[in-house]
Amino acid sequence: MTFVLDASVTLTWFYADEHTEANNGVLTRATSEGAWAPGLWAVEVANAFQQGVRRGRLTLGQRDAVLASLASVPVTIDPETNLHAWTATLSLSTRHRLTVYDACYLELALRRGLPLATLDAELRAAADTEGVALLGL
Predict the structure, then answer these.
(1) Half-sphere exposure of 113 (CA within 13 A, CB side)
(2) What whole-number distance in Å separates Cα of residue 33 and Cα of residue 97?
(3) What 3-state class would DSSP assign to 36?
(4) CA distance 84 to 108
(5) Which of 39, 35, 32 has the alpha carbon at shortest distance from 3?
(6) Is the terminal CB of the chain with fewer CB neighbours within 10 Å at N or C?
(7) What are the CA-CA distances from residue 4 to residues 53, 64, 74, 93 (Å)?
(8) Cα–Cα distances in Å, from 118 out to 27, 33, 59, 64?
(9) What is the domain extent for residue 91?
(10) In whole angstroms, what separates CA 103 from the centre of its chain?
């Protein structure tokens, strides 16, 4: 079974000071089984690595190498994220006091019946309340 991948977990794969055995296990699982992500995942990841460049954590070359490496991980971008943004996603955001961005990950996990990989405490709590399985991170 595959899972929904949050940007928060994705970033840990490329910053040495954020590596953990559990996070690396998610990378192994994503590489072997694939993962799902909402349409905003790529934008969130790109923005986070761009912020890494601005803060001096990465060079432009490192950012580009990281993104090229990440492109080899089989992450399927959900084509229906936007169709649910103003309905189910917004409802989840309101109910759990999440950003709409975070609610996109929860909505996708609920709709596809998949576990969620996230490090975000509020999103993990909302997923638990909604009965969404969480990967052990």
Answers:
(1) 1
(2) 31
(3) strand
(4) 9
(5) 35
(6) N
(7) 27, 24, 12, 17
(8) 12, 17, 26, 24
(9) 4-130
(10) 11
69-95: per-residue pLDDT in tens? 999 999 999 999 999 999 999 999 999
Greatest pairwise CA separation for the chain in angstroms: 41
Tokens encoding 60: 């432009």
Consecutive H or E run containing 9: helix 7-12
Q: What is the CATH number of the domain that holds 87?
A: 3.40.50.1010
Tell me: the pLDDT tens digits for 12-63? 998 888 888 888 888 889 999 999 999 999 999 999 999 999 999 999 999 9
For the beta sheet containing 116-117, the strands, ordered from the edge strand earlier in sequence to the opposite edge, are 75-77, 35-37, 4-5, 116-117
Q: In total, how many domains does the chain have?
A: 1
**Residue 137, number of CB atoms within 10 A of its CB:** 17
Taking the C-alpha atoms of residue 50 and residue 45, their distance in angstroms, rounded to an integer, is 9
Q: Is residue 91 part of a domain?
A: yes
